[in-house]
Amino acid sequence: MAQLLQDPQQSHSPPHSLSQPSHRAPRTWRWIPERWYVHLGLLLACLVLGFPVLYALIVSTQNNAEVFRYQFTFGSSFGFNWRQVMVSRHLGSYMLNSTIMAVAITVGKTILSLLAGLAFVYFRFPGKWLVFGFVLITLMMPTEILIIALLRFVTGLGWGSTYYALIVPFLASATATFLFRQHFSNIPSELSEAAQLDGANPLQFLTQVLIPLSWNAIGAQAVIHFVYAWNMYLWPRLIVQGRENQVVQVGLQSLLNLDSSASYGPMMLGAIIASIPPVVVFIALQKPFMSGFALARDK
Hints:
Blueprint: H1 2-12, H2 16-19, H3 36-59, H4 64-68, H5 78-88, H6 91-122, H7 128-138, H8 147-156, H9 163-167, H10 174-185, H11 189-197, H12 202-210, H13 215-230, H14 234-239, H15 248-253, E1 257-258, E2 261-262, H16 264-274, H17 276-284, H18 286-298
Helix pairs in contact: 5-16, 6-10, 6-13, 7-10, 13-18
């Protein structure tokens, strides 16, 4: 009787192999990622890219004797190197001049390029495409081709060794004008028509509609313009005489020889200090910089 009562339960009970889940063998070394080789490759790439920076930091604290011993530990001459760079060679004043020049060029290029892009897209005037074609032609003419004529022109204006000579010749940018023109061309024309119906003038349309829609493009252009202006060497070297208004890239050359010999510690320390402002600008504008290039790629 007990056997008959147990048969229905046994008939509805699943097989033993299905009722108990199978257990996998416990995986050892759980801290190792499954795609460990990808992480290893990225780690090696970071080490290869970061080693020169680390070695530069080490050399900046050493004297020549420690450098020639290939010592991979921090040296004992950081204070001496700092005084040589910032006090004896006045790198701080050079960096201030470069900051003023780079900020002024970046702001000026951005404003003029925005206005030029607005004119080429939303205005109609005779010879519009001829003027735009001339702007495109200037893209193939680097500054070095015009350096002699530009030097004579600026010197004739009496701007030698002034901020005007460092800033004004580089306020116009054909590249930024072209990119803003292309960017504005992809903005729906209905926005312009709606702004006209609301009674907005062109500058109001630019500041209240176009610029809020173009922050990514503006941020990307600002990074490029700042780095370009900060790294200028040839033009400041030719147009500026003396130390008062000289820029940091020319000032770094004075660190090549200290006390009639090559001083690698001060030279490397000066290079590291001079690279800080572009890195700060890139980090601050990293998101709009990357978004601006992603937007350009999608279009």
